[in-house]
Amino acid sequence: AQSVTQLGSHVSVSEGALVLLRCNYSSSVPPYLFWYVQYPNQGLQLLLKYTSAATLVKGINGFEAEFKKSETSFHLTKPSAHMSDAAEYFCAVTNSGGYQKVTFGTGTKLQVIP
Amino acid sequence: NAGVTQTPKFRILKIGQSMTLQCTQDMNHNYMYWYRQDPGMGLKLIYYSVGAGITDKGEVPNGYNVSRSTTEDFPLRLELAAPSQTSVYFCASNPGQGARSGTGELFFGEGSRLTVL
Fold first, then answer.
1. What pLDDT, in 10s, does the model give residues B64-95?
2. What does the alpha-carbon distance between residue A19 and residue B24 come to, in Å, rounded to a whole number?
3. Residue A60 to residues A3, A65, B61: CA-CA distances in angstroms?
4. Cβ burial, residue B43 (10 Å; 0-12/13-18/19+)
5. How far is CA A48 from the centre of its chain?
6. A43 interfacial to chain B (CB closer than 8 Å)
7. Which residues pair with A95 in a beta bridge?
8. B100: which chain A residues are within 8 Å (Cβ-Cβ)?
């Protein structure tokens, strides 16, 4: 079985402040991990992914995430928030063993305060 | 490439009616999925398919049916609509390679918002 837990359904940051969105995973085999972003009334789009290469993964729009096996975490960060970062962010997991299903977390809505 | 296309974008149904949500992709992806999204619940997998003629249940299949007669199309059928099926439905695809879903990256459509009254 596999699962992800996102801590905090809503996160507010000031424009220019650090963004930190938390994700912890559970997987019985080595995982592939993803962060997706959803803007209002749109589908999800891939922000970044970890597939067992480098543990620090850089994505689009200045976001990055670090895979920490010892902590079973894959937190998403951005050094300086921009108003355009306001969206809902989903962490997701599948596994490297050929499993077809992708399991999503419950999402974190990011509010950026001017 | 249009990617993943869903129709309709919005629909209101009465209790007991049936309808089909259409999904088509032009990327020649093997794997296709239907998710529903409810506030605070994330995305729940309804059905998925690893190729034409092959479908399987996800976490929440009750009240839905799917078919996959071609690589491109993966329609979702709602029979006897109920208020609990009010949701936003997303179709997604993944390249897949045989038994493997590759790196698992999903390509999403823009969603279909369904209200059952």
1. 999 999 999 999 999 899 999 999 999 999 88
2. 36
3. 24, 11, 34
4. buried
5. 8
6. yes
7. A31
8. 98
